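pasting for ref
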Amino acid sequence: MNQQVKEPQSSGSMYAETVIIHPRHVKKGLFRAAKWWLMWGLLAFFHLAPFLRWDRGPGAPSQAILADIDGRRGYFFFIEIWPQEVYYLTGLLLFAAITLFFMSALAGRVWCGFLCWQTVYTDLFVQIERWVVGDRSARMNLERAPWTAQKIVKKAVIQAGWLAVSAACGIAFVLYFGDAFQMMKDIFTLEASVGVYSFIAIIGGFCYLLAGFAREQVCLYMCPYSRFQSAMFDEHSLIISYEEWRGEPRAPARKGQSFEGRGHCIDCKMCVQVCPTGIDIREGLQMACIGCGLCVDACNTMMDRVGLPRGLISYDSITNVNSRAAGGPGNKTKLLRTRTILYTLLLLVIGAGMALSLGTRRTTEVNILHERAPMYVQMSNGTIRNGYTYKILNMVRQDRVYNLKVVGIEGATMEVVGGESNVTQMDLSVPGDEITTLRLYVNAPEEKVTDKKTDLIFILTEKAEGTELRSTSLFAGPGR
C-alpha cells in the first residue's frame, strides 16, 4: 500500500509565491546530531579525498581518486578504468539508483534529509547565517528591518561566508581532475589554466545559488525524486508521521496542565518552525517533507517540557502508527518484505557482476577497423589486399611482447607499414599502459578468396603469459 503524498495547494495563480523560510535551530536530539555528524563527515571526505595517495608504481599517478582527463583514465584506489570500460560507470549509476530505492523502501527519504549535497550545503549556509545574525527570530527581524549600516555589514559577512564555502566547493571539485597538491599551488598562485578557474566558478556558483537562495525550492521544483517518492514507500517504510489519534484536538497548554479530554499537541508550531522546507507535518505526509526528522526532535523537546510521552511526531512506519492508534504495541519493524528482498537481490547481482568483471577483465584489448575506401585492392600479380587499422591496448604498466597471426584464408600474409612484410606471423612490442596503432595490410591469393566477404581471424598472443585474444574482421574480395 503506497502512502498518499500531498501536493502543494494551488493559489489559483500560475506561479507559486516564494516564501523565505528561516528554520529554527534544533539544539539537541538524535536527528539533529546525526545531521551534524554526517554533514561534517561528508564535507571532510569531499575536500580531503583528493589528497589521499595510492602507489601505482613508477610513472603512474599517485592520487587515490582521480579522473585523469589528459591521460583519459579514471582511478579509484586500486581500480583503473579506461575509456573503453565506460560500462563500469553505467553499472555504478545503476547500483546507486537501486541503492536509493532500497534506502527509500526501508527508511523513507533518508537520502534527502541527511546525505544529499543540497541538504548538506544548505545546512552549512543556514549555520553561517545563525553565527552572524542569530536564530530564526533574529534573522526574520533582520529581513524586515530597514537598510542600515549594521544590516549591510551583517549581510556582507554572510555573503562573504557563503562565497568562501562556494569557492572551497568549486576548488575541491576540480582537484579530482588533476594532482591535488600541484593544482592547489597553481590555483592560489594564479598559474592554473582558464578552464580550471572556469570550472571553479561554475561549480562554486551553483553551490552559492542553490544553497544560498534556492534552498527548499530545489527539493520542491527541481529535484524529480520528490515527485515519485511515494511509489517506493509501503506501509512498513519508515517515514515522518504525526500521530493524530494522540495529538487531536490540539490546543495551547502549560507545563503541569491536565491533558484529560484533549490532545497532546500543544500547538506550539515548533515542528513547523524547525522544518527546512516550512511544512506542517500535522497535515500529513507531504511532497516537500525531506525526512530530516528535525520536527521529531523539536516535538520531543516540547513533550519533555510539558511532561508528556515522546513520539507525538515519530519516525516510524504507518503500520506501527496505526497499531498504536488501535491500542496495540506498535513497535514492530518489518525489514524483510518483497520489495526490500528484491532490491537486495538486485544489488547483490549488480555488485557481484561488477566485482567479477573487474577481477577477471582482460589486460589487453584490441580494436580492428577495416579500410572502407577502397574495400580491397587487386595487385598486379592477382593478389587481393585489404587494409586495416589494428590497435593494441596494453592495460598493464610493463612493456609486453605479442605475437600476431591471421587465420581463415589459406596463404594469407601480413604487412605492417614501416615494418615486416609478407609474413604469416610477427612479434609486436607494446609499451606499458599505452595504445599501439598499426597500419596493417593482409594479402591473400585470388583463388583463395571465393566470396565477396570472408571472415578473417586475428590471433594476438601475449608471449610471456600465453594468453590469447581472437578478433574477427572481414576480408573483402571480388568474389566469383
